[in-house]
Amino acid sequence: MDRLMIMGLSAAVGLLSSQALAQELVHQFRNPSFGGPPFNSSHLLSIAEIDRPDPPQDTTTSFDANTSQADLFVRQLESRILSRLSSDITDAIFGEDAEPSGEFAFDDTRISFDTLLDGSVIVSIEDQTTGGVTTIEVPGFLSAPTQ
């Protein structure tokens, strides 16, 4: 019985001493952006760069060292002409003297538009080489002229 009493007493002392050693848990951020140690920044940045996939390369607008000044000029001129054409089409659809319907064609592209009774406008852009059609519906409250 003495042996059982000693084991029970040692178990009680062990439990009481473990409570005395316990302390409050405190959360600490690892990311330096949120107040963590500033020395973690390079490590976290390198992990993020490893996990991130490479962005896709856009070959239509990228210029390399072999691009001549003439090629750059042609690309910029084409861009300006298309921008002006886009502006003219937008004015024809939504401008002061807007028509209820119409059609524009250049190269292999055909753009047609129709104004519906509710004021909304349907714009269709057709690529005649591929047969692909893109349709855009502009709600009536956006296409209504402002006074």
- As laid out across the biggest beta sheet, the strand order is 1-2-3-4
Proportion of residues in β-strands: 15-25%
Cα-to-Cα separation, first versus last residue: 103 Å
Mean pLDDT: 78
Q: What is the makeup of the main sheet?
A: 4 strands, antiparallel
Give the helix proportion (percent range): 40-55%
Notable characteristics:
single chain, 147 residues, alpha+beta, four-stranded antiparallel β-sheet
Structural summary, described in words:
The chain is α+β, with helices and mostly antiparallel strands. Helix content is 41%, strand content 18%. It has four helices and four strands; from the N terminus they run αααββββα. It has helices spanning 2-21, 41-51, 69-94, 140-143; strands spanning 101-106, 109-115, 121-127, 133-138. A four-stranded antiparallel β-sheet has the order 1-2-3-4. The longest helix is centred in the middle third of the chain and has 26 residues, at 69-94. The chain is elongated and about 105 Å long. The mean pLDDT is 78.
